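Ligand: flavin mononucleotide. Inputs:
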Amino acid sequence: MNPADFLALISRRHCQRAFIDEPVEREIMESVLLAAAQAPSGKNTQPWKVTVVSDKARDGLSAALCAAFDAGEKQVSDYEYSLLPSPGEWKDRARACGYSLFELKGIARDDVEARKAHGRENFTFFGAPVQLVFHLPAGAERGNFLDVGMFMQNVMLGLTAYGLGSCPQFSVAGYASVVRESLGLAADRWVVAGMSVGWPEKEACVNTFVPERLPLADFVDWRE
Ligand SMILES: Cc1cc2nc3c(=O)[nH]c(=O)nc-3n(C[C@H](O)[C@H](O)[C@H](O)COP(=O)(O)O)c2cc1C
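Predicted complex:
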């Protein structure tokens, strides 16, 4: 493969948050997951596990998550996602990303209801027919999370190659107990993240959203 084509595929992957009502063939999911599992992992431990949720199970999970969200249930994830307090520049980027997405969706900053509805879309999986739930043994360490992250990125790139869209979702992991209960996952599994997967709705404005990236010099330094 031409390197430029592969780099273009990497650059083409951006979160999709609107999907058409069309199933994803199991064969595609299997081939993507199989290839994704070529991801590196510390000492080849391959710690990732993924539950592929579709059809009735998908609807059940979505209903349980929406019920928790609508009831205002407090989100309790199995692990802390980020450094706390976040460095100022991370906060700035997160804020800028949120505001530009709202702007694109025509949501005013002070429109609490519209912002809430936007958040709730995480739990209808943006209309995607498949939700992937990535999990690890309870007590997993940072290295294990690194490995799962590489697996997840491979999954997203594989999906992109097929023209499928995806959106990784920590929001789903925010209701870890709901996820475990709905999917019958053991209590000793930690929910790392969800991921919506489906055929992108091409005309949806939200799917054109590409948050700005930093210039090379801001995140790379060289030693010679
Ligand atoms: C681990 C992880 C969790 C995320 N959780 C969510 C989420 O819950 N909801 C959402 O809409 N986007 C979520 N995102 C997507 C990020 O907002 C997105 O990757 C980032 O803004 C960069 O945009 P891009 O992926 O479209 O290039 C998550 C991304 C990652 C890597």
